[in-house]
Specification:
mainly alpha, 71 residues, 42% helix
Amino acid sequence: MPTPPHRPRSNAFAERWTRTVRAGCTDRLLITGERHLRTVLTMYAQHYNAGRAHLGLSLRALNDAPDGIPH
């Protein structure tokens, strides 16, 4: 089911992801086109899932082993 327009609370997960990407990535860069944007977002998603520490996961990345030591 599509999210209704102008209803940011309808899909809180998507809104949080959008805010995280803007604050951590796109607000700091000058995006020159759609190809550049796709490249930047792909690289940020890889960083977000593999290297970025998440407070809700005890400062582990999403792809870290649950019993591993965070780096």
